[in-house]
Amino acid sequence: MSILSIFVVIPVLMLLGLWAAxxxxxxxxxxxxxxxxxxxxxxxxxxxxxxxxxxxxxxxMILQSSTVWFAPLHINYAVGVDGISVVMLLLSSIIVFTxxxxxxxxxxxxxxxxxWFTLLSTGVYGFFISIDLFTMFMFYEVALIPMYLLIGYWxxxxxxxxxxxxTLMLMGGSALIILGxxxxxxxxxASTMNILEIAHNNHIPDAVQNVLFPFVFIGFGxxxxxxxxxxxxxxxxxxxPTSVSMLHAGVxxxxxxxxxxxxxxxxxxxxxxxLAWIFLILTTISVVYGAFSAxxxxxxxxxxxxxxxxxxxxxxxxxxxxxxxxxxxxxxxMLSHGLMTALFFALIGMIYGRTHTRDIRKLGGLMKIMPxxxxxxxxxxxxxxxxxxxxxxxxxxxxxxxSFENPDTFHRCCTIIAITSIVVTAVYILRTVGFxxxxxxxxxxxxxxxDATWDERFAVCCLIFCVAxxxxxxxxxxxxxxxxxxxxxxxxxx
Length: 494
Hints:
Elements: H1 6-20, H2 24-54, E1 62-70, E2 75-81, H3 83-102, H4 110-129, H5 133-144, H6 146-154, H7 159-187, H8 195-200, H9 206-223, H10 232-239, H11 242-252, H12 254-267, H13 269-295, H14 300-321, H15 324-355, H16 366-369, H17 371-384, H18 391-403, H19 409-438, H20 454-472, H21 475-492
Antiparallel strand pairs: 1-2
Helix pairs in contact: 1-2, 1-4, 2-3, 3-4, 3-11, 3-15, 3-20, 3-21, 4-5, 4-6, 5-7, 6-7, 7-9, 7-10, 9-12, 9-13, 10-14, 11-15, 12-13, 12-14, 12-21, 13-14, 13-19, 14-15, 14-18, 14-19, 15-17, 15-18, 15-20, 15-21, 17-19, 17-20, 18-20
């Protein structure tokens, strides 16, 4: 069994440890030890991958392993990683680790909450290491199912409605995905479910690809907040507890972009070329619509949720541009947005836990009352609007540069329209910062509030370090991602 299976084994052991835990102290101990091991493993894997490439290993995927699971349908437990998988595993580990501390004092049913949270992370890790269609889809479903309870029970506001809407829309997307995956398997000869084998021995007729591609791309696009299938996202994020919002926006939505690129475009390349213009229009709308929608929101979580619609739309937008630079930028954007939005949702949850409101019209003067959280929010905002030195700048500049490499008028017009979202982003970020941090105090009892506790400071500092680190030293990630993007685009652009 491959060493990559550790990413699934550790969460399973965490589930057993949580089940056996008898008090909240033991629950926290299990979560800290488990999430620390996952983070250490992902850092080792990143360094190992970089070392393998430096040593001349040119395999498309490293650490591959395959074990027969169900021979009649050629289903295998097949795993392997490339540069994209490696950075996504690293992102997932950072979010799970910091999310543990962001939920340090969560009540009630802390044990049960972390069990569902860990199950969700199990699906995420399994999805990113899988190279078998069935195994990948199974882990995809494992990642989605816990969301219903995590929001429906531990959420706030219209949590039951939010949980139901999110679950139904994502399950609808899953139905489209399974139809597409079954079609890919049977029309390619029903001889393998290995993604690499299908991609390099593709016998799916062009006409069939044009039918299957919308199923797979829209199915994964629902999770990636593709317009007009994004409506679950704002209400889902708005009602979710803090660490769930962090993991959902920071990692789970990235499964959508990853699936669109790794499965829809890689396995159905002819259809990707033929139909990209349709989805490019939709993603351009997502980018601009999400930014403008964030401008008119008054709830902090809804502002960040619509911002996520815009930034995740930018991921799909860059992938559909199909240049090496734009696709590298798309994965960098997945990594950058995951860190930034996790930082935002963590800070919003900490502010809400003290003020009991997320309405920016009722907040004010927080810079004097809770300076640590306020400075953290300013840093998150500056990263989100693309200030040089932070991850957002690197990702967005790479995307727009790569997108403009397309010489035709249509692609360049879409690029110009998408670029306008930068200005709109600055508007809603600076507007929000002004409202909640620098206006006069709206409620006298806010003056008695305390600043961040040690666990909250630790989570926020870790995320700020990662956002600034990626923005200042992006080359290691860019090189790893480009190394993985190249063989996929060679298939797509044939």
